[in-house]
Amino acid sequence: MENKASGGKIFSLGLQHVLAMYAGAILVPLLVGRALNLTSEQLAYLVGIDLLTCGIATFLQAWKTKYFGIGLPVMLGSSFVAITPMIGIGNQYGLGAVYGAIIAAGLFIVVFAGSFGKIIRLFPPVVTGTVVTVIGLSLVPTGIKNMAGGAANKDFGSLQNFLLSFGVLAFILIMNRFFKGFMRSLSVLLGIIAGTLVAALLGKVNLAAVSEASWFHLPQLFAFGMPEFRIAPIITMIIVCMVIIVESTGVFLALGRICDQKLTPQDMTRGYRTEGLAIVLGGLFNAFPYNTFAQNVGLVELSRVKTRNVIFMASGILVVLGFVPKIAALATIIPPAVLGGATVVLFGMVIASGIRMLTEVDFKDQRNLLIVACSLSLGIGATVVPELFAGLPSALRIIVSDGTITGSLTAIVLNLFFHMTARKSERTTSENQLGAAETKIVKEQVS
Prior knowledge:
Blueprint: H1 7-35, H2 40-62, E1 76-78, H3 83-93, H4 95-111, H5 116-119, H6 125-147, H7 159-178, H8 181-185, H9 187-201, H10 208-212, H11 231-258, H12 265-284, E2 290-292, H13 295-303, H14 308-322, H15 325-332, H16 336-358, H17 366-384, H18 394-400, H19 403-446
Antiparallel strand pairs: 1-2
Helix pairs in contact: 1-2, 1-3, 1-13, 1-14, 2-12, 2-14, 2-15, 3-4, 3-11, 4-11, 4-12, 6-16, 6-17, 6-19, 7-9, 7-16, 9-16, 11-12, 11-18, 11-19, 17-19
């Protein structure tokens, strides 16, 4: 799997991996932090610790040992799947409950890593495709509100915000139309940079957070307070992490094919265990749940350099960036309208990925149509009208009032109801038919 590369090439390829995932890595803390009304200083910490934890998690996954690490050239970043649940838990229970739930869910993944090969059967394409589609659809309102300038801003919906956000969107689309390879992979990041520069000329960028930020800081355990362990948020986050594991499974298999490495159940178990460790790490340092980033798979295939040294270099770059608050603070000055123009593309791509997964589903089977129809309807409904569940106890409300979790649970339960019970019934019928046939044969022989 390993191939040789010079030191300079390893650095440039490592930096390329960082740049390809950087936009996705910083958008999650920005969206969650702003939704939970964090200060600029807290937001800068959140971005910084996220980059640092991304680097550590990436190193652990690429470093193959007896107990953890899948040993493939993978990059880990904060998961978009966790955005809506984290915001929901934070608004209802506070940040302590958010990080308590993340720690507990990570430990759950670590403990049951060896069993996920069996549990994954609960997530066939009809479930995973529906879940990923619901995730994308539930994120779209956040992106659209940012395009208008951010719901709390006094210039919400102004023409300036409209032009700025659609300008960023147009820039990204043009980059994807006329450029290839590395430049295309950086289209979102370059769009954000270009949009922020234009916003600065319009007087919409405040550099105070950057000037006030220090040049160096150390990570801090429980920076936003001690974790709180509540049942409903923990169940919610476990479901989220299960979806993350399913997403990462696809990336593992794709990279295994690219690197000509046949993955064993033991390899997958180590990969799952490492993702659990990364999630626990995110909870301890008040960061995020982490998953393997699919966008970096394309870079491995494009460069044809499959050595893990490139990934170790990338993880080192992320760790260094995480120790420098001024760099993290640069991300916090991005205006909401610019962020919205970029995220509408990313969230739309999540929806498109879900639809692509659903193309593997046999829709001639009415049961699959019902699973997708009910899951999407309830998932989107819970996102748009969360008041539907206002009469439920708070422990249940936090689970079902989140569109992602409602849609996911609906897809899992209906898949079990329609397919698992049907298979059991088919096996029983087949066994009965076989038994009857054997009885008939015995009678004929006796006669």
